[in-house]
Amino acid sequence: MASSSSSAAPAVLKLHQYGARWELPSFDPFCLSAQAYMRLAGVTFEEVPSNNPDVSPTSNLPLVQLGDDYVAGTNAIFTYVGNKTGKSLDSALNAEQKATAAAFIHLIETKLHPTLLYNWWAEKQNMGQTLVLPHFNSMVFPLGYVLPRLKQRNVQSYLYTLNLTQDEKVYNDAEECYAALADFLGDKHFFFGDSPSSLDAVAFGHLAIHLVAPQSHKLRSRLLQHKNLEAFCKRVMTLYLGQDFPAIPAPPPATEDKDQKQEMSQHKKTGMYLLTGAGLLILLHYLTKQHQAAHQ
């Protein structure tokens, strides 16, 4: 009788990401960028919509896992996936093109992304939408109420260090980024021609959310002035993510700001109650555990 031997199944590449929202695979632009990269490169992977950044060594998502390897952050993920699978989106780019891609990615992640943070976390009329993101909804009571307000405070402090405290500067920055991307894309299929690059993945990850997040109407109205960027997002979504691009929300009615301010006022009152008594004790316990885990 022939002997049989068993061998371990090959490790599956997993992408841990914040969950789906607005008919997009993730509500987070960096997670969406990572997924777009892997889809555009033709990499086989398993989606893990965890909404729990604690799975990451850096307490941030996105995160890719392969066996005992854990890699967090879009740039590190792009490099790791390319090395492990042999499918790098930038392998066909020359040195000048790689430098150009890196410059535009830096522009998107350091200048355009803060405008989204401002839009979601610094504009009071948008907080009603931001507070119901899946990441916060998945938290146990009362953390789902308390931690978003701590997040808001941290984001606003970060925006202050960038001198992003006024609408005019924020949305001028967004317009400059959109215009630069639209000009470079032109009428090309992708930013460097007929084949996608890491720049296409990152641009899609950020621009798609600007187009469909309900609270992003001030960004969306400016982005929609560049029809080639809108068409680019729809093309990537349809051809590589295998689904139609979500419906783009209509401009909000003039009365919406007043209603959202009233809703935000109620959120603030609720948050103040929860920051006292049992809510504060549970929060302190949670933060203590986080601190201990970080130093193990």
CATH architecture of the largest domain: Up-down Bundle
Query: What is the percentage of strand-forming residues?
Result: 5-15%
User: How many domain units?
Assistant: 2
The number of strands is: 4
The level-1 CATH class of the largest domain: Mainly Alpha
**Helix/strand/pairing category:** mainly alpha
Radius of gyration, whole Å: 21 Å
> Strand arrangement, largest sheet?
2-1-3-4
CATH fold-level assignment of the largest domain: Glutathione S-transferase Yfyf (Class Pi), Chain A, domain 2
Q: What fraction, in percent, of the residue positions are helical?
A: 55-70%
- Give unreliable regions as ranges: 1-6, 256-282, 291-296
Q: Label the overall shape.
A: globular
N/C terminus separation = 51 Å
Main beta sheet: 4 strands, mixed
Number of helices: 12
**Nearest-integer average pLDDT:** 83
Provide the succession of SSEs: EHEEEHHHHHHHHHHH
Report on the architecture of this protein.
It comes from Acanthamoeba castellanii (Amoeba). Belongs to the metaxin family. Residues 174-236 form the Metaxin glutathione S-transferase domain. The protein is mainly α and 296 residues long. The protein has two domains: 13-85, Glutaredoxin (3-Layer(aba) Sandwich); 95-241, Glutathione S-transferase Yfyf (Class Pi), Chain A, domain 2. It is built from twelve helices and four strands. The protein has a four-stranded mixed β-sheet with strand order 2-1-3-4, covered by helices on one side. Strand 1, helix 1 and strand 2 (46-49) form a beta-alpha-beta unit. Helix 1 (29-41) runs parallel beside helix 2, helix 7 runs parallel beside helix 9 (217-223) and helix 8 (198-212) crosses helix 10. The longest helix is centred in the middle third of the chain and has 27 residues, at 95-121. The radius of gyration is 21 Å and the shape is globular.
